[in-house]
Design a protein that fits this description.
alpha/beta, about 700 residues, 5-stranded parallel beta sheet, 8-stranded parallel barrel, about 15% strand
């Protein structure tokens, strides 16, 4: 057998003098969990320790403030500006190293991106007075989001302090002193954060640096600030201690922005100054919604890795790449020598044990990220980090899954994400679990959502595999009643039946060309349903969908998605009534299949249920694709071939409609839980049946309920 010598994800690696057990790095992620005084909290330590325990070769503590309390991009950010921070930092280095991982401190100054300084009414430090710029995110937020975010605390427009030579020297000292403290705290390496929209990047990019002195103009001059920091730190800590820098290798959606040619030159300068590696990132202007998901954590796969590969060609030191790199792509990049290490952020939020599973050859067990941007949205709103796919993320010190002290007989009603997750967790704890699902497949409404938004399907498939490989007894086509549940003699019941979706009281809503959620499920999956839904489908459509069902073509969201590119039993002109998550994702799905789509709602704002960053990107994308978006309408009425409404100014408008889709009106349904509690049965509730929160809340509820039954 021929053995490949190619580097792969499990190959050991080296950065300077730092030996790493594999090529998987937890890239810098601030968790926004520090104590109010900038010290490491138990939550901070547990967050990073979980990634070390999960097998990452290197854990990067993101955005440690060298000028704390100034220059902060999160209110609960770790500081390193004084010696008082060293004991807490030492706690975190020891906890990570105990699991065989190395740990690096990322030193950072927020500059123009310092929300902390904006809230405090202090000037933002910049290389040059910035041009007026728009930032789309605040306008996308709902009132409750504004209240919990920094935007609700910023009371005046930002002011700016253009740095002189003395200021530059001060910040260089701050980075140098931060590096000294990192060494004393036991870190294995140091990364200088010169990326995204922060201070060093502001010097590097010609879009934000218009200086005419030795720190502006040519790429060498714009890089001078970064190079002086590297050289000063090298003088402080010596040549052998691992030190490298991170900067953008490309800027998107920015006029006169930083280019890959600039990046290659800066990388060469950094190497000569003593950098042991280059961490590649990217940055995007945020004047449009798409810009929110085009930078360091992109929506598009491998969004900037080609630029990282060009930087790799320009230097003789390792290059760390990130940016939605799926495992097969990452492995190919390593094997081809295009990059040297793979940075993982969101993937390790969804599954901290990803590296360990890769090393063990169990990649199919990795819980997938669904790229919903809840994690980044929470940080943008100045909240602790969260993950929609993993209800434990950000709460590692608060909840876990111990073995049950007293095993119970538990019945879970409902096989959607929340039901499958809580059943999986309870089974792992040692409880005896029975799962009842009313339909013929597990997945619930998420299985239908996966048709419109593919990443949801990955999570559903993972949960189904977890259930299949467990001791859970699963009964499909079993609509639970009080009697059937009582017959199982449960100690506890978990109700995860999802929301109810009554047809909204709109004139014409019962017409034959109008579909609600139940109708769409039949239409897309071929499942049997009620007579009213079946009557809406033509004989030909019923025959085709029935044949597809018998052949297994409608059992997989992926198969349905592919088949729908060729044929769909819907007309060309579609009106969707409902502008929340479901309606918008459905609109994107349909417009990509050649439909002319209008979305209308009486709500004043679209996108409820979507994390703000994905909300902005999706709304931007729909406008680009020509979808008509009509919020704040009244008097919606459905006629035979059109939909009428009155817009906000009071004008009556009509829109041609071959089909109308009702995508609103979901609400909680606690009726089964009430019956069970009235019968004296210990009952818990998970997911949309207690309030519509979609996958993210269902997974969080599942973690909470499982923990309560320890």
């Amino acid at each position: 057998m021929q053995i490949s010598n190619k580097v792969n994800l499990t190959s050991p690696g080296r950065i300077g003098t730092l030996e790493l057990r594999n090529r998987m790095i937890q890239t810098a992620m601030g968790s926004n969990q520090a104590e109010p005084d900038g010290n490491c909290s138990d939550d901070t330590i547990a967050f990073y320790e979980a990634r070390a325990r999960g097998g990452a070769a290197l854990v990067n503590i993101g955005a440690i403030g060298v000028a704390y309390p100034h220059g902060l991009v999160m209110r609960n950010q770790v500081g390193i500006s004084e010696d008082r921070f060293i004991p807490g930092l030492r706690r975190i280095t020891k906890s990570v190293q105990a699991h065989g991982a190395k740990i690096v401190a990322q030193l950072q100054h927020g500059g123009a991106g310092s929300t902390g300084d904006m809230i405090a009414g202090q000037p933002l430090w910049v290389p040059s007075n910035p041009k007026a710029a728009s930032y789309v995110l605040p306008g996308l937020l709902f009132d409750d989001e504004i209240e919990q975010s920094p935007f609700g605390l910023i009371t005046r427009p930002p002011s700016y302090h253009v740095m002189d030579k003395a200021d530059i020297e001060l910040v260089v000292r701050q980075f140098t002193e931060g590096a000294r403290r990192a060494v004393e705290a036991g870190f294995d390496g140091i990364e200088i954060h010169g990326a995204h929209g922060f201070l060093i990047r502001s010097f590097l990019s010609p879009a934000t640096n218009t200086r005419t002195d030795e720190y502006g103009g040519s790429v060498e001059n714009r890089a001078r600030f970064l190079i002086e920091i590297i050289e000063a730190i090298r003088e402080e800590i010596g040549r052998d201690f691992p030190l490298w820098c991170k900067f953008n290798v490309i800027e998107f959606n920015i006029e006169n922005g930083f280019t890959v040619e600039d990046a290659c030159k800066v990388a060469q300068l950094a190497e000569r100054a003593g950098s042991d590696a280059i961490t590649c990132s990217s940055y995007s202007g945020a004047s449009r919604g798409k810009g929110l998901v085009s930078g360091s954590a992109p929506m598009n796969p491998a969004n900037y890795v080609a630029y990282a590969a060009k930087v790799r060609e320009a230097v003789n030191i390792p290059v760390i790449a990130a940016g939605r790199l799926e495992l097969d792509v990452a492995s190919d990049l390593l094997g081809e020598g295009k990059v040297d290490f793979i940075g993982m952020g969101r993937k390790l939020l969804a599954d901290p044990e990803l590296p360990r599973k890769v090393v063990a050859g169990k990649a199919e067990e990795i819980r997938p990220c669904i790229y919903c941007f809840l994690c980044l949205s929470e940080l943008a709103l100045d909240q602790p980090v969260r993950c929609a796919a993993n209800g434990f993320t950000g709460r590692e010190s608060q909840i876990d899954i111990p073995a049950a002290s007293v095993p119970r007989n538990v019945v879970v009603v409902g096989g959607g994400p929340g039901g499958m997750e809580v059943a999986r967790l309870l089974d792992r704890m040692g409880h005896r679990v029975t799962l009842l699902e009313a339909s013929e497949q597990l997945g619930g409404t998420a299985r239908i959502a996966a048709i419109a938004y593919e990443p949801n399907g990955r999570l559903v498939d993972w949960l189904k595999r977890q259930v299949e490989n467990s001791s859970i007894e699963v009964y499909l086509n079993n609509r639970a009643t009080l009697e059937t549940i009582m017959a199982l003699d449960p100690d506890s019941v978990i109700v995860a039946t999802g929301a109810i979706r009554p047809r909204p009281e709109i004139p014409g809503a019962t017409a034959a060309h109008v579909f609600d959620g139940n109708d769409l499920r039949q239409l897309l999956t071929g499942e049997t349903g009620d007579a009213d839904s079946s009557a809406k489908l033509s004989f030909t459509t019923r025959a085709l969908m029935g044949a597809g069902r018998k052949l297994g073509l409608t059992s997989s969201p992926e198969m349905i998605r592919r088949a729908s590119q060729l044929w769909m039993p819907l007309g060309k002109r579609i009106v969707i009534i409902g502008g929340d998550l479901v309606g918008l994702e459905l609109a994107e799905f349909l417009v990509h299949r050649g439909r002319s789509v209008t979305v209308m709602d009486d709500a004043a704002r679209f996108g409820l249920g979507l994390p703000p960053l994905r909300r902005g990107a999706l709304l931007d994308e729909l406008e680009t694709l020509g979808v008509t978006l009509l919020p704040d309408v009244r008097n919606i009425a459905i006629d035979e071939k059109q939909v009428r409404c009155t817009d906000a100014p009071g004008t009556v408008k009509t829109f041609a409609a071959d089909n109308v889709i009702l995508a609103k009106g979901a609400s909680e349904d606690l009726s089964l839980a009430k019956w069970l509690r009235d019968a004296g049965i210990e009952t818990h509730v998970v997911g949309d049946c207690k309030g519509v929160g979609y996958i993210a809340q269902a997974m969080r509820d599942a973690a909470d309920v499982a923990y309560s039954m320890r």
